[in-house]
Design a protein that fits this description.
With 399 residues, the protein is an all-alpha fold. The chain is built from twelve helices and no strands. It has two domains: 11-196, MFS general substrate transporter like domains (Growth Hormone, Chain: A, Up-down Bundle); 202-392, Growth Hormone, Chain: A (Up-down Bundle), CATH 1.20.1250.20. The chain has helices spanning 4-36, 39-45, 50-78, 80-101, 107-132, 138-190, 204-211, 214-243, 248-274, 280-300, 303-332, 338-388.
Length: 399
């Protein structure tokens, strides 16, 4: 009985160390979406073109796609904590720089700086979650991390709009600067310094082999497909709802329901995975099936009920697949290269985030929006086959 006291104390300490990492996940999601959701109004006020709007939307994600593998490898080389702290401080500096410059035309430069900073602290935070949480609690840890990221996606557009209404872009960027600095200070006092682990020399061919294994590709495919479904749901549910005569309140509520479902499901799924009730491969596949069903339901059936139920299915599916994908990566990756692995997997997520809407939009040109949603549902079904077929789960790589 007495052993449970130190066990509970250790669990409490671990939760305290993970809390600022979850906050870092919130920062990158909130920072990206609080600005992106209002850029349409910004470009209209500045009389900018749609191409300019597209570039402003893409610069943050583009910086993450390029930077995450680089900073992930740096985290493996020098330890993840300095990369986490440096990225958060750089995010605050980029945000504060926009406020101090006082030039609205520099919003693109500020977003580029924020994206580079997020590319640093995001994979470092994921690597720290994997190393600080016991192997038997990876699912719960990444479920909580994903839930806080989902909260950032959900609250970003709403709170960003409120801040811009109250004080314009300077107030929004000042808030982001304060948020980045606050989380950096929190992490400085709470997150322990984990040394870089000994690594064998790696060639480019070795890296290609490692990233080509099923233990990396399966969860990365699941993460990319789940993120594509989430991005399409958030972006296109209002469009299809408006086409069916639904007002902005109803479609906005459906999007909020999708995001809230994804955020609430992730901790529960992670806990069930840690308890042995959900396997990673079966769970990732089930999550993508749920998301595909939600997309097909919205495409095939009319009315508000189809949009609402479809939103719940998409949210639940992404909420199931995401923590299981990260837990699988953490369990099977070389502990000395967790940063590089998480950074590369995050690139898959970013490609899904951008590629899902592009695919739906391209198909919709010839087949309508319902056809685009069915097309993405079919791609998710193909991803399920890729995840479930083949040999059994890879063995975890030991420290």
């Amino acid at each position: 009985m007495n052993r449970s006291v130190p066990d509970r104390a250790h669990a409490s300490a671990t939760r305290g160390q993970l809390a600022p990492l979850c906050a870092a996940g919130f920062v990158t999601a909130f920072g990206a979406h609080s600005i992106a959701a209002s850029l349409g109004g910004y470009t209209h006020a500045q009389h900018a073109s749609l191409l300019t709007l597209g570039l402003l939307l893409a610069v943050y994600d583009g910086a993450e796609v390029i930077g995450k593998p680089v900073f992930g490898s740096l985290a493996d080389r020098i330890g993840p904590r300095p990369v986490l702290l440096g990225g958060l401080v750089a995010f605050a500096v980029a945000s504060a720089g926009f406020v101090l410059a006082g030039d609205p035309a520099l919003v693109g430069v500020a977003r580029l700086g924020q994206g580079i900073a997020a590319a640093a602290f995001s994979p470092a935070a994921s690597a720290l979650v994997a190393r600080l949480a016991p192997r038997t609690q990876h699912g719960r840890a990444f479920g909580g991390y994903g839930a806080w990221k989902g909260l950032g996606y959900t609250l970003g557009p709403l709170l960003g709009g409120v801040l811009i209404t109250l004080g314009g872009y300077p107030l929004l960027f000042a808030t982001l600067a304060g948020l980045g600095l606050s989380v950096a200070a929190w992490a400085w006092f709470t997150v322990p310094a984990l040394p870089a682990l000994p690594r064998a020399r790696q060639t480019v061919l070795d890296l290609a082999r490692r990233l080509g294994t099923s233990s990396f590709l399966r969860p990365t495919v699941a993460l990319a497909a789940a993120t594509a479904a989430l991005s399409v749901g958030v972006g296109f549910l209002p469009v299809i709802g408006a086409a069916r005569g639904l007002g902005p309140l109803a479609t906005g509520a459906a999007v909020s329901l999708l995001a809230a479902t994804a955020a609430l499901v992730q901790p529960w799924v992670g806990k069930a995975h840690d308890g042995g009730r959900i396997g990673s491969r079966a769970g990732m596949a089930a999550g993508l099936v749920l998301a595909a069903a939600g997309l097909a339901l919205v495409a095939a059936l009319p009315g508000l009920s189809a949009v609402v139920v479809g939103a719940v299915f998409i949210g639940a599916g992404t909420g199931v697949a995401t923590p299981l994908g990260f837990a699988h990566l953490a369990a099977t990756a070389d502990a000395a290269r967790l940063g590089q692995t998480m950074g590369a997997a995050e690139v898959g997520r970013e490609l899904g985030d951008a590629g899902g809407p592009l695919l739906v939009g391209a198909i919709a040109i010839g087949s309508g929006l319902s056809g685009g949603l069915i097309g993405l549902a079919a791609l998710l079904a193909a991803s399920v086959a890729a995840i479930t077929l083949g040999r059994g789960q890879a063995r975890p790589v030991r420290d």
